[in-house]
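dude i think i finally got it to work??
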Amino acid sequence: MDIQEEQESDPAWNNLPAAATRRRVDEDTMQIESDIAQHLVDESDFNFVKMRHLNHFSDHIRQLGNLLNVRSELPEKAMMDLKQAYRQSNGHEANFQILRTKAR
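look at this
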């Protein structure tokens, strides 16, 4: 039941003074905003398509076919290897250190 239905079904709601009604509405609003904020923290993963990638989709679909047939395991593994090599570098001229690490 949403708040408006609750208000309409509660006979005491209509008898509340204006200040009490406003306070109750404010409390309900704060509770809803708190619930939404908590949901965003708990459930958001920022796993969405970046806008700059959308212009590549048509080319990829033409080249690779159905996107369900495309796997990302190899690029993800390569990225993990690069991240590990970067962590092993000292950050100064990291490109050369990464290449040297990967060439071993």
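The CA atoms of residues 89 and 97 lie 6 Å apart.
im so relieved honestly
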